[in-house]
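Box 3.1 A note on notation
Throughout this textbook, protein chains are presented in two layers. The first layer is the amino acid sequence; the second is a token string describing backbone geometry. Keep the layers aligned when reading.
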Amino acid sequence: MDILETDAYDRRQRRNTSCALFFSLLPFFLSTGLYFYLWTPDIPSSITNAGVKSAPALLLAAVVLSWNGGPSVLGVVGGLVFSAVGDFCLVWPELFLHGMGAFAVAHLLYSFTFLSSRYAIYSCSAWTRFLCLIPFLLGGAFYIYLYPFLQKAPNSDLLVPGVGVYILLIGLMGTLAIRTGHTPTLLGSLIFMVSDLSLALQVFKVTAPVEHGHLVVMVTYYLAQLLIAVGDVRAKESKDDFAKWKRS
């Protein structure tokens, strides 16, 4: 098989893989659509509502697990499961701290994954290293801006340090995502930060209530999780392709 035939074969394989991945994601798209179809501004907190909200993250976890296998349980799959726990908790305002803790663990697991050899193919230029500082700088500036509002909130003694640690962890995830050089992973992590920023502005009453504020948070959140999941599957494919190239 010459180079042209090999290249054509690889393109067909990638196309077939993309189609298979898309079909495996259909349950996620359907569950996300169901959530937005059922959601209303006055929807009561209930087990059913919490289950519908957390289902998309669990379905994404199942997709990544089916593609990447057991080791991903301590990576993106685990992060998605903890995200589902966070989704479940945030349905009840009194469980906000529990939900934030679950998402903090998710960001930690994502960060460990982005440090793995599957993501460490690309070299870091000086420009990339500079970009890696941006999530921390933006996170620090946002925390300073948010601090007076945190002090006014109930449980401020827990929220002030808790939100600070959370921002540090999501900033770390964003930094490591930039380092990977994988576009879906990078975009997913940064969109996740935008989603959490929007949520914080609303929860801590930094801004006046926005008519479609909840939709902004959830659309960006589900998109972020989708991109991180797809990025993890693609990272495995990139590693396999890189291994084939080294053997050739």
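The mean pLDDT is 87. The chain is about 80% helix and 0% strand.
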